[in-house]
Amino acid sequence: MELKNKVAIVTGGGTGIGKATSLALAKRGAIVAVNYSRSQTDAEETVQQIIAEGGQAIAIQADVSKDQEVRGMVHAVAEQLGTIDLLVNNASITRHIPMNDLEAVTDDIWDELIDVNVKGMFYSARAVSSYMKNNGGAIVNVGSIAGTTGLGSSLPYAVSKSAVHGLTKSLARALAPNIRVNCIAPGAVATRWWAGREEQMNRLAPRLLLQSISTPEDIASMICSTLEQEALTGQIITVDSGQTL
Ligand SMILES: NC(=O)c1ccc[n+]([C@@H]2O[C@H](COP(=O)([O-])OP(=O)(O)OC[C@H]3O[C@@H](n4cnc5c(N)ncnc54)[C@H](OP(=O)(O)O)[C@@H]3O)[C@@H](O)[C@H]2O)c1
């Protein structure tokens, strides 16, 4: 699928991997709705950067864990930009808890992570699917190697990303043949996700087969290729500089 003139929503599209994806999609000629929940300035700066580079974009607020907000956002984007062809389900949160500290995992933490990371991606896919049904569309969910290794910033985060991988396969079945659904599972990526833990991230680099931490642009480029690839659905694609081999 050519991305030129396609309308894309990128959740959490104003920071980190989401921002790099918004910019990469716009470079390929897509019209981008940059979603944010709190980071309004980042989303607006991303839109300004796209417009300055000759592209088209809007910023739009919605908390992806709230179904009504997601439906409102999707409706507003379709009204303003004509339709929706592409969705990048990138928005997620985590909590840092040692893996073996099971007592620190409260119900609130479970609920928060599952609501944003899993149900948020489901709500967004469901809301865009009615617009994609007739003309076709493509969705990429951002998973994580935490979802395949079980090891991550916390147990609920790793489990939420396993659920994202499962959601990808189930949605690929549910939405075929007109809508393709795939997942990119990054290893460590240098973003604000590691804020306050930069040293831990940098210690990882020499241990990776490719000896450098992936950039947001590396992941964004894979997300764009996956959206383009017509013969791909239900796949979890690891992009981790050899971290898990
Ligand atoms: N960096 C890594 O090492 C790494 C590794 C594997 C996977 N990932 C995944 O990559 C994705 C992007 O992370 P990142 O590294 O780019 O970090 P990031 O900059 O913190 O990105 C997270 C984005 O999610 C948005 N978000 C969070 N809760 C939201 C909500 N309820 N509604 C709407 N948006 C929400 C944030 O926007 P607001 O501030 O506006 O809420 C932010 O833009 C995530 O899915 C993460 O799990 C990252």
TrEMBL record:
Q: Which PROSITE patterns match?
A: ADH_SHORT
InterPro entries registered for this protein in UniProt: NAD(P)-bd_dom_sf, Sc_DH/Rdtase_CS, SDR_fam
| Entry keyword annotation includes Transmembrane | no
What keywords are assigned to this protein? Oxidoreductase
Keyword Cell inner membrane assigned to the entry: answer is no
Pfam families, per database record: adh_short (PF00106)
Q: Which domain of life is it from?
A: Bacteria
PANTHER family xref list: OXIDOREDUCTASE, SHORT-CHAIN DEHYDROGENASE/REDUCTASE FAMILY (AFU_ORTHOLOGUE AFUA_5G02870), SHORT-CHAIN DEHYDROGENASE_REDUCTASE FAMILY PROTEIN
Q: Which family does it belong to?
A: Belongs to the short-chain dehydrogenases/reductases (SDR) family.
Q: What is this protein's record name?
A: SDR family NAD(P)-dependent oxidoreductase
